[in-house]
Write a structure and sequence with these properties.
single chain, alpha/beta, 6-stranded mixed β-sheet, 15 helices
Length: 476
């Protein structure tokens, strides 16, 4: 997809590079001022490279937290189907190194200069111009820690920059140097998003569409993201919980800024999951809560489970718009879309409003249709109907089907029908104080709203109010 690739060079790229456990993720979180990257003392915690943005001194740039380098041979090893996760993690780090406008080569002051640091310094010199490398010494947490800095001059990478990613010491000076170097090498990119008191920044982010890819482990979420982008953005492996933290990738599609978020697989163990996987699942649910549209990914070659149904209930409960991504369509022998559509809706009747896209992330089949569908859903999610539109709508449908009574003997009369909110859409229906509306009539109203105005892929919420008191609530 050309739009995704072109967007990758809208901002200068700064890469944090170094061996395992030198504090790359901590520095990434500190510079981006977000707790995006998982942090632990376990080597290899970071798998997929984290991408974020930094705004400093009128300059905006993209920053990448790469996986820790454990064995240098992985960096130059050619891709193969037999690659394990370590191969892919470190090859991906090597690819970012080659694309970088600036490299933060991070070393650990506590452990001191190690042979592997020297080997990595040689590798950097072969791939990156010396003026694009910032030798950064982490874990300089107190003035006395500066005594060990001198040994890093042996790397011959210029003046080292001491920082403490844990407490933020020295990071402002580091950012000043980054901005200065980016402005010198590429002033157009470095200053392209200058704004007056942040106004332009707010305008850009308010238009951004957040799209979350969610599902059980091993349904093909990471493969789907890679296929949407047209390049290997995230690590793909049959091992469960390969993706441990949400991966954010910004693209522009048909003029619309989109933030694509690949999440960790949500398993039925839920809160019982331990360690890094538990934090990954918690971050996935948090990403869901902040998204606009969800790509609910299913492995269509496998049966739909209770776990799938519970996850979709979470999406509907959160009032998120979504698409069923019936992935791994290439594994299905008899590819009958009508049969499988009936199967999905039969298992999940409460989600019939969500469209289904049969895809194969592996072969790329039907992948391009997903973003078009996403934009359509996002547009209809924001639809705001006027009072006059809803009055005409109500007048028409009550002639088709008279409001059905619930409890009591009196037929209810709908006195007012208004839309109280868009994105997500919420409606309110007012009836008399002693009247009661049958829940089935709400379903009728919702179905007619969809037939008339769309609201594709979006749950509708209709409240029934008696005078000023909310009497009942129904979710589509």
């Amino acid at each position: 997809m050309a739009d995704a690739k072109d967007n990758s060079k809208l901002l200068p790229l700064v890469v944090i590079f170094g061996r395992a456990n030198v504090g790359k993720s901590t520095l990434f979180n500190c510079l981006t001022e977000k707790r995006q990257a998982l942090i632990s003392n376990i080597a290899g915690t970071t798998r997929d490279s984290n991408l974020g943005q930094v705004y400093w001194q009128g300059c905006r740039f993209e920053i990448v937290d790469t996986g820790g380098i454990i064995d240098l041979k992985h960096l130059t090893k050619k891709a193969s189907s037999a690659d394990d996760i370590a191969d892919q993690v470190q090859r991906q780090a090597g690819q970012y190194l080659k694309q970088a406008d600036l490299v933060i080569f991070l070393v650990d002051n506590k452990t001191g200069l190690l042979p592997q640091d020297g080997q990595m310094a040689l590798l950097i010199k072969k791939n990156v111009n010396a003026d694009k490398v910032l030798l950064t010494i982490n874990k300089v947490d107190a003035p006395k820690d500066r005594l060990k800095i001198s040994e890093f001059y042996k790397l011959s990478l210029g003046e080292p920059y001491p920082v403490s990613a844990a407490n933020g010491s020295g990071t402002g000076d580091l950012l000043d140097v980054i901005v200065e170097k980016l402005a010198t090498s590429n002033s157009q990119l470095a200053t392209r998003e200058k704004n007056n008191d942040g106004e332009e920044e707010l305008r850009v982010t308010s238009d951004e569409l957040r799209v979350c890819i969610i599902g059980k482990p091993n349904v093909g979420k990471s493969s789907l993201l890679n296929s949407l982008l047209g390049y290997e953005r995230v690590i793909v492996s049959p091992e469960p919980h390969t993706t441990r933290e949400p991966q954010h990738t910004k693209i522009i599609y048909q003029g619309q800024p989109i933030l694509l978020i690949d999440t960790a697989g949500i398993s039925k163990k839920g809160a019982k999951t331990k360690g890094l996987e538990k934090f990954g699942v918690a971050k996935s649910l948090n990403a869901l809560s902040k998204s606009d549209v969800v790509l609910m990914t299913l492995d269509i070659s496998q049966a739909i489970t209770h776990q799938d149904a519970k996850l979709i209930e979470e999406i509907v409960e959160a009032q998120k718009s979504f698409i069923f991504i019936a992935n791994k369509w290439d594994k299905v022998e008899t590819r009958d879309t009508k049969k499988y559509t009936n199967y999905i809706y039969g298992k999940l009747p409460f989600a019939r409003f969500a469209p289904i896209q049969f895809t194969s992330a592996l072969t790329g089949e039907k992948i391009k249709k997903i973003l078009d569908l996403t934009l359509q859903i996002a547009k209809e999610r924001k639809l705001q109907l006027s009072d006059s539109q809803l009055n005409k709508f109500l007048s028409r449908i009550v002639k088709i089907h008279r409001p059905a009574k619930g409890k009591g003997v009196r037929h209810p009369r709908i006195r007012e029908f208004t839309q109280v909110q868009a994105n997500p859409p919420k409606f309110e229906m007012k009836i008399g104080a002693k009247e009661d509306l049958h829940f089935s009539y709400l379903r009728f109203i919702e179905n007619r709203l969809r037939e008339t105005y769309g609201f594709l892929g979006t749950p509708l919420l209709v409240n029934v109010a008696k005078r000023k008191n909310v009497h009942g609530m129904h979710r589509d």
